[in-house]
Every structure is written in C-alpha cells, then in structure tokens.
Design goal:
Family: Belongs to the succinate dehydrogenase/fumarate reductase iron-sulfur protein family.
Helix content: 25-40%
Largest sheet: 5 strands, mixed
Number of strands: 7
Strand content: 5-15%
Shape: elongated
Protein name: succinate dehydrogenase
EC number: 1.3.5.1
Enzyme class: oxidoreductase
GO molecular function: 2 iron, 2 sulfur cluster binding; 3 iron, 4 sulfur cluster binding; 4 iron, 4 sulfur cluster binding; electron transfer activity; metal ion binding; succinate dehydrogenase (quinone) activity
CATH superfamily of the largest domain: Alpha-helical ferredoxin
Distance between the termini: 57 Å
Number of domains: 2
CATH topology of the largest domain: Fumarate Reductase Iron-sulfur Protein, Chain B, domain 2
Structural class: alpha+beta
Length: about 250
Amino acid sequence: MKLTLDIWRQEGPNHAGHFETVEVPDAVPQMSILELLDHVNNRYTEENKEPFAFGSDCREGICGTCGLTVNGRPHGAEQNTPACQQRLVNYNDGDHLKIEPMRSAAFPVIRDMVIDRSALDRVMQQGGYVSINAGTAPDADTLHTNHQTAELALDHAACIGCGACVAACPNGAAHLFTGAKLVHLKLSPLGKEERGKRARQMIDDMETNFGPCSLYGECADVCPAGIPLTAVAAINKERARAAFSAKDN
C-alpha cells in the first residue's frame, strides 16, 4: 500500500519544528505505526539522511514510551490501543497520515516525536508510595482483601503513564492518570496510611502542571490500558475526604 506521511521534525526543545513529507510506496497493512517509522528510518539511513527520533521500548503495549499522535489522535485510529499495536490495516491505500508528538504544554518536545513526560513522574513522586514496616516480609495472607477489591485495584494499576489522556484533553488535564493512581493505592491494604496526604499532594501537583478536566471523556477513549472514566471522579472524592478527615489518612 502507498502512504504519504507528514512526520514532525524538530531538532530540540528550543528549536522551531516543521512537518517533513515522506512518500512510502511499499507499506504493509500488518505493519504497526512504529514499524512504519522503522521502515522510513531504514531508508533514510541508507540515503545518509537523519532518521526520525521517536520513543520505543517494549513494543508490547506495556511501557507507554511509544506515544505519538496520528492524524490528531493520540496513538492512532484504533480505540484504546497503544501506537506500537496500531496496525496500518486501519488505513487505506493512498491515505495521508500526519505523525507528530503528543501535544501538551506539560510535555515539551525533546526531539522530533520524543517528549518529556516528567510532569507525570512528579505527580507520582508526591504520593505514589506506601508505608511498610522494614524487616522480614509479612506472610501473604496477613493482609486480607477480597477478590473484587483486588481486581478493581489492578484494573486501575494497569495505567502505563503514556500521557495519551493528557494529549487527548482540550485542556491538557491529567485527571484520568492521577485518578487511576489514587484509586489503585487507596484500595491497596498497604496504601491506606498516607491516603489523605497522598490525595492532597498529588492533586496539588497535578493542578499546578496540568489543566482542568474538560468533562468530555476523550481521555478514556484513547487510554491504551482501558482505565474507566470513573477514575476521574476519584479526584474530587479523595480531595473532599482529605479535607474533611481529622487524621492525615
């Protein structure tokens, strides 16, 4: 299949960027978006041209580093699927694809399609931990939790921190990401001690670096981990609980 690509080119965070048009006459429908970029870069290398920089690690939809934007949609056309799993079968012969980094004021471009997601890391640093007693590890059945609660916690722990929710939101909000972390940790038996402190600090940092929630739900539509939109509600719930709780937790 033949594709025309407009790929974002930017030398660094302090340089102006532009789209570079590339014709690909021999794309294969089974290729992923990343494999398509690999194909372009192989040709560029053979022609002694500078290849395009983009994030990539596991290519199994686990690490979240592959995030980019295709035709204005984070990751690509397929719903709830990371870029490394997005196949060209979703496009037609002769299509024109615009490939660029995930856009958000909180995600400065490092080079081409590689972005700095450290703003998400700073949210996690404010409360993404649990308090445990040092020493010998407790027996597995010491802390009891029912199956339903454990499954709900694991569903929210599935967030890979790719930043698609932020890029999809018109306001650049990180409520789905932060809410997923708050739900996951509040349901964990070891995460309850600093629950109130966690909520205050993580939400304060989120609101400092990201925009307000748009209430449209674009974030859940593109999330490759399938984090439910109900995670957003955890922001106000945990904030209110922390404000009215007499204790820190």
